[in-house]
Amino acid sequence: MSAIEACRTEALGGHVAGCAKCGHHHIAYNSCKNRHCPKCQGPAARDWMEARAEDLLPVEYFHVVFTLPAEIAQIAFWNKKAVYGLLFRASAETVMTIAADPKRLGARIGMTSVLHTWGSALTHHPHIHMIVPGGGLSLDGTRWVACKRGFFLHVRVLSRLFRRLFLDGLLALHRAGELAFYGGLEGLAQADAFAAWLKPFRRSEWIVYAKPPFGGPEAVLAYLSRYTHRVAISNHRLISADAETVAFRWKDYRIKSGNRQKVMRLSTSEFIRRFLMHVLPDGFHRIRHYGLLASASRKVNIDRIRTLLGQTMPVRDALPAAEAAPLTLREPCPCCGGPMRIIEIFRRGQKPMSRAPPREQAA
């Protein structure tokens, strides 16, 4: 929270940019670079997307979502690192296991998984967004096995295996003493009580769904750019804020048709509480790659797949000089359109010597 409050203020230092033509000056304060800060995710998302563009294949891509039941989500809230990690592993193992089944696809596949922990109203709603190429390498690695056009895997089959893998993993975490319980659920610390509490979830339906395939690799990039570095709420959803109340737009998914957009008003303290629920543990990665796209072997596997598909490695044009410049110097002078240059740098807590009206902008 302190990082977000200090973002793009003199507390983090910055620089003064001056126009080479008309002499206009403005102050640009440094960004906090915190991954939970709504203002700092644009540049991070752009850099990540440029790197991922090299990995795209000329095949259909599918979007699969794995969601936890609300009651188990409460356990996840108290044990974020352990249970969110299990959510990643169980969902990835589910897809790779079903895809490798000769009765299904019979192939080794890869995927990119992104963790979101929020609903539109900032409630706690942990789920995995998974982007999967529509096919994989045959089990002997000699050919590309494509999915049926417009169809990936049966979601009910995925749901059943995901449910079993996750619940078995949750029991293993409990036996290892890695789960904590509070409030009315403190009694679940006992092994017998916890096993009994989990039984109904082995018979209930868990929500796994697959969206229609993307329109092409470019659509995958556009989608990922909106999802990979998203935080619980972005500035454009905010309507008003003062010492007492924060108002923001949210989407009511319970409404099956018509206008789902609504306005929610929360006390400022409740808004901050809901926002901070979605801060991840230190060092926890919310974007992960599995199977053929795992970092250790991704390049080799992608080159192998391209060879089998008869695709040559795309040649990317070098970025123009304006694109290669630091982010704060990409914008031209607001007065005359001339190039902006850094004329002064000031450190944390210092004030610039040059006089210029402050202007919010990342450094």
Automatic annotation (TrEMBL):
Q: Which Pfam families match?
A: Y2_Tnp (PF04986), Zn_Tnp_IS91 (PF14319)
Q: Which GO terms describe its biological process?
A: DNA transposition
Q: Which InterPro entries match?
A: transpos_IS91, Transposase_32, Zn_Tnp
Q: Supply one GO molecular-function term.
A: DNA binding
Recorded superkingdom: Bacteria
Domain Transposase zinc-binding: residue ranges: 1-68
The segment(s) forming the Transposase IS801/IS1294 domain are 110-297
Its protein name is Putative transposase
